[in-house]
Amino acid sequence: MSDQVTASTPPPPAVTDAERDELRRQGILLTSLQELYTWGNSHSVWPLNFGLACCAIEMIAASMARFDIARFGSEVFRPSPRQADLLIVSGTVTKKMAPQVIRLWNQMPEPKYCIAMGACAISGGPFKQGYNVLKGIDRFIPVDIYIPGCPPRPEALLHGLLELQKKIQGFKISGPDAPRHLRADLKCDCPVPEFGEHDLEPPANPEVWTAPTLVRSEKA
User: Fold this and answer.
1) How many distinct structural domains can be found in the chain?
2) What is the distance between the terminal CA atoms of the chain, rounded to a whole angstrom?
3) What SS3 state is found at 144?
4) Is residue 184 within 8 Å of residue 176, measured between CB atoms?
5) Would you tell me how many other CB atoms lie within 10 Å of the CB of residue 183?
6) What gap in Å lies between CA 46 and CA 36, rounded to an integer?
7) pLDDT tens sequence across 13-59
8) Can you give the residue range of the structural domain that contains 126?
């Protein structure tokens, strides 16, 4: 019996960006389900019409004619969390307001995203040492984009929105890079803390935040 050599079929050559542009000019669009899915999600992000403190003024200014957030498909600020998919935490999060913010997050449908806007939402800002201020909203809900500043200007919010669009476009439909709502190992809702005797109970969501471990070196 003679050995048979089976030649493997070479993979088809990849289409270059120049070839895609030429086909697009001819009215032919080449895409994949994943690209179509992430493109639609990234260009139709609807923020929740919600603000906490002075950073909310800058968020409102970003929707005005001078900055025009409508250029990026996010001009629809929805008054209900059921119709929004972007939570912009703009301002100081007090421990009295934290349960309400987390409850709004849980009421938003997936896929949903969070932007921590300003130093107060990120770390407590100048009120960090206050007993009544939460030291970062990322202790309870997952944050996708951080925008530093006190307060950040509307241009910074637009930059953060563009970075969020890039992040959404990098998602995969399956696998470890899939968004949260497409993965069975990640929870979409976050526990709402209650008012304890001295602090919120629990003081943080261990699913999204754990206290850093300080490694102290011994001096000789």
Assistant:
1) 1
2) 77
3) coil
4) no
5) 14
6) 18
7) 777 878 878 888 888 877 788 888 888 889 999 999 999 999 999 99
8) 46-188
C-beta of residue 136 within 8 angstroms of C-beta of residue 121? yes
The per-residue pLDDT for 84 is 95
15: left (phi over 0), alpha (psi -120 to 50) or beta: beta
Question: What ranges make up the beta strands (E) of the chain?
Answer: 86-90, 113-117, 145-147, 194-195, 200-201
pLDDT at res. 12: 66
Q: What is the CATH number of the domain that holds 87?
A: 3.40.50.12280
Cβ atoms of 49 and 83 within 8 Å: the answer is no
What are the pLDDT digits (tens) for 158-206? 999 999 999 999 888 888 778 888 888 877 789 999 999 889 999 999 9
Distance of CA 154 to the CA centre of its chain: 17
Q: What are the C-alpha distances in Å from 126 to residues 55, 96, 136? A: 14, 18, 12
Q: How many CB atoms lie within 10 A of CB 6?
A: 5
What pTM value is reported for the model? 0.83
| Domain annotation covers residue 79 | yes
Alpha-carbon torsion, ordered 47, 51, 57, 59, to 10 deg: -20
pLDDT for residue 4 is more than 60: no
Place of tokens 């471990």: 213
